[in-house]
Amino acid sequence: MGQAHPGDSFEPSSGTRDGPVPAFDVLIVGAGFAGLYMLHRARQLGLSARVFEAASGVGGTWYWNRYPGARCDIESLEYSYAFSEALQQEWHWSERYATQAEILRYAEHVADRFDLRRDIRFDTRVVSGDFDEARGRWTVRTDGGEEACAQFLVMATGPLSTANVPSLEGLASFAGRTFHTGRWPHEPVDFHGRRVGIVGTGSSAVQMVPIVAHQARQLVVFQRTPAYAVPAHNGPMDPAHEARIKADYAGFRARNRRMISGFGSGVPRHPVSALDVPPEERARVFEERWRIGGFAFGSAFNDLILDERANATAAQFIRDKIRATVHDPAVARRLMPRHAVMCKRLCVDSGYYETFNRPNVRLVDLNEHPLEAVTPGGIRAGGEEHALDDLVFATGFDAVTGTLLGMDLHGRGGLSLREKWRAGPVNYLGLGTAGFPNFFMLVGPGSVSAFTNVIVQIEQQVEWVGDCIAALRARGLATIEPTRDAEDAWVAHVNAAMSRTIYPTCNSWYVGANIPGKPRMMMVLMGFPAYAQKCDEVAARGYEGFRLGAA
Ligand code: FAD
């Protein structure tokens, strides 16, 4: 495996519009967990690689999302890399669920331990990329006017990395401070004594609301759709548990990879239907899962995501918990979701519903009191003015495709990705799209991304992409791209598979419904083991469904 190709200039530090354009085997966009591991893997294969990262540091999600309460919903011993036994043995997580700060420290440790930073260009946003058919090379341009080219372009740009700020009338006139959870300042934000408004009630808000409520003089939560939240029961890492896992970490990882979502082998799915057990037994199982905490609740029975009636039993259980927790029956009623549980991302909380019992917290249901405008002094909803000093948008992301389409990408014959995906992100295996040779997406649309422990998905895809590049090189091949037939079949497969679940029944970001005008298309597939197996089979059959081009 070579470094830069013969004839290519290789001047990694001097690629400006005026100077020579540096050339690499692989260009990687993004230095979150996907980009970091892709860089490491490329190096292991002897490939020259350059990463461009818009942030000033590594970590991606965990670099940007510094809001109070930000933490992982997957247990720390699982939400971490498996590729290095030494790394997973030496790293110690302090809590059952790691905080943003601890995950960021871990990402920084990984970058240093594997000496990754020297190939990462920070504070550099890729704004466009073009495939040159004659040379079989991608050229990318950055916001600083820099150019670089490579045979392969890998998008490690993240599923949740383009913050969504709703366009609200009067927003620019607001006189106080505004924040988005996904673009949180690096310096601590103090809410003591302030009147704070939080717009949105998804995962980030559910994590943040209890903490802000303790600081703020007054907190107003503006809710469009209520959230189902299950308790985290977070706590310090149990040393005995950690020792047990570390005694056979590889075995633990392997068991998790056989789970439908790539995690949770410690509390496996109950292998029966919620409808096949008597109500008392069902309640007992839900209660048991509720006590365990976290996503274990979602796998209480084997048909909660497949059968709306089974799902309704879990939804009712959580609504009953809300009723029992929230003192004011009218507030409790507003907090009770009506959509299928898990149809939108299930939230994991630490005191979210209880927070609405505090005298300084108010819930505004935007269905009853529509948001009319942001004013210099706050928010007007349903004719009432809510005076605010701080306005926090916990309004999520233009998920999965937003960041990819934020760049001006052109494949074969100048084909624009934005044009190609006008009706939705057509793709093959979530890894590529026809007309875009040597273009790989990590955690992209059509993969199992958000329904998985994302690090498990990242490792599987990075290894697949690395093996693919190595196989092409070994066979003297120069290009690979999906065929249109293969991607049409894959999109049909994702739609068919997901139509047998509860996921199409609500307006979630999984289908793009949180962004006005975004085409509605199921962007995430469920089932890590089957997905990984399919990717392996495709590779074993000589990259079936891809067109391979000679040098
Ligand atoms: P990211 O971490 O998003 O990194 C992408 C990087 O690409 C970013 O640093 C970004 O700056 C950079 N980038 C994007 N576009 C460009 C460009 N044009 N030029 C240069 N750089 C660019 N997943 C789980 O599995 N479990 C969880 O509990 C969980 N909790 C989460 C909580 C929050 C608040 C959020 C937002 C996400 C959570 N996720 C969770 C999903 C999380 O995004 C993934 O787990 C994982 O961090 C994704 O890694 P990544 O490298 O693919 O993308």
List keywords for this structure.
551 residues, alpha/beta, FAD/NAD(P)-binding domain, globular, binds flavin-adenine dinucleotide
Please explain how this structure is put together:
By secondary structure, this protein is an alpha/beta fold. The chain has 16 helices and 20 strands. The strands form five sheets. Strands 1, 2, 3, 4, 5, 6, 17 and 18 form an eight-stranded mixed sheet that branches. A hairpin with a 4-residue loop joins strand 4 (126-132) and strand 5. The longest helix is centred in the last third of the chain and has 21 residues, at 454-474. The protein is globular, with a radius of gyration of 24 Å. Bound molecules: flavin-adenine dinucleotide. The site of flavin-adenine dinucleotide has 37 residues, from helix 1, helix 2 and helix 14. Flavin-adenine dinucleotide binds at residues 29-35, 52-55, 60-61, 63, 65, 70, 72-74, 79, 125-126, 156-161, 182, 204, 403, 407, 442-443, 453-454, 458.
Topology:
Layout: E1 23-29, H1 33-44, E2 49-52, H2 61-64, H3 85-90, H4 100-113, E3 120-121, E4 126-132, E5 137-142, E6 147-155, E7 177-180, E8 195-199, H5 203-215, E9 218-223, E10 229-231, H6 239-247, H7 249-257, H8 279-292, H9 308-325, H10 329-335, E11 347-349, H11 352-355, E12 361-365, E13 371-375, E14 378-381, E15 384-387, E16 390-393, H12 402-405, E17 408-410, H13 417-420, E18 439-441, H14 454-474, E19 477-482, H15 484-499, H16 528-540, E20 546-550
Parallel strand pairs: 1-2, 1-6, 2-3, 4-17, 6-18, 7-16, 8-9, 8-16, 9-12, 10-11
Antiparallel strand pairs: 4-5, 5-6, 13-14, 14-15, 19-20
Helix pairs in contact: 1-14, 9-10, 14-16
The structure holds flavin-adenine dinucleotide.
